[in-house]
Design brief:
- It is a single chain.
- It is globular and about 35 Å long.
- By secondary structure, it is mostly helical.
- It contains 3 helices and no strands.
Length: 57
């Protein structure tokens, strides 16, 4: 696994402790897909946000 992918997965897993819109996104997906896929999908959302911040700044 890529270091960046691992970092984003850890960040996505830490969102399970916060009350935010990404937390709500994670909970919705977890109910349908299960925990591992929900963490990966939330990590992808974080990547998209990070990429947008870098390209539009």
């Amino acid at each position: 696994m890529n270091r960046a992918a691992n970092a984003f997965r850890i960040a996505a897993f830490s969102l399970t402790q916060s009350l935010s819109t990404l937390w709500a996104f994670y909970r919705r997906l977890r109910s349908c897909l299960g925990t591992p896929k929900a963490i990966t999908a939330t990590a992808r959302q974080l990547v998209l946000i990070f990429h947008r911040m870098l390209t539009t700044a």
